[in-house]
Amino acid sequence: MTPEFILTNDSEQLVGHDGPVVLLVSKRMVKSRNIAFALNALMTLTESAEMVRRFHGKLHFVVSGYEKDHRELPQIPEVRRYFAAIAQEWPHWPWFLARECEQIGLLLMMLMDVQLVQQEGGQAGYFIDPGEMKRVLFDQLDRENIMLEALGISEAEISAACDSAMADLAGMH
Q1: Nearest alpha-carbon partner for 5 in 111, 103, 107, 98
Q2: Which residues have CB under 8 Å from 164's CB, separation 6+?
Q3: Alpha carbon distances (Å) from 70 to 40, 75, 105
Q4: Model confidence band, residue 164 (pLDDT cutoffs 50, 70, 90)
Q5: Rounded to whole angstroms, how far apart are CA atoms 65 and 33?
Q6: How do residues 61-119 score in pLDDT, each as one tens digit?
Q7: What is the crossing angle of helices 77-89 and 36-43, to 10°?
Q8: Domain membership of residue 152 as a residue range
Q9: C-alpha distances in Å from residue 113, one per residue of 14, 84, 98, 135
Q10: How many CA atoms lie within 13 A of 64 on its CB side?
């Protein structure tokens, strides 16, 4: 397997790379609300149909600088605002996010209102409104499909990607 690659806004660095890519978001980027670097880096993935196909399901995002914060990322308002701003401009997360590692679910929780609830035994979980999750996900998918269709991605490929995203969400813990 090709090692992970930190995504930058230089698509030339992706030449010959077909493994996982990581969008690294720092606390400084979040606090400044500057989405330009992250957005430019993500845009490299959508430059061509070949890039779109090559990096389907291979994107991971990591948020650094919050390791000492006891809250989960969906509980941190500035992180939620940051990812909402990116998603408003770049709705292609469902196509690109890696499967089987809860990236899609984590992103969706940051894009909608979730409530932390205490469960028996002292464990905490999230209350997620299924209607809101459907609305947020379908908004991303609808806007993403415009780009995919414009690049000539087949309906079968789009459908398979939607199915795998839904299966990933169904498997969340």
Answers
A1: 98
A2: 57, 99
A3: 30, 10, 20
A4: very high
A5: 15
A6: 999 999 999 888 999 999 999 999 999 999 999 999 999 888 998 999 899 987 777 77
A7: 40
A8: 5-170
A9: 35, 11, 23, 12
A10: 7
Tokens (6 digits) for 107: 């992103």
Number of domains in the chain: 1
Higher pLDDT, 123 or 136: 136
Q: Read out DSSP for 25-79?
A: EEHHHHHHT--HHHHHHHHGGGSSHHHHHHTTT-EEEEEES-TT-SS-GGG-HHH
- For the chain, the straight-line distance linking the first and the last C-alpha, in angstroms and rounded, comes to 26
CA distance 165 to 57: 9
CB 145 within 8 A of CB 93: no
Contact indicator for 147, 100 with CB cutoff of 8 Å:
no
Q: Which two tokens stand for residue 155?
A: 């309906």
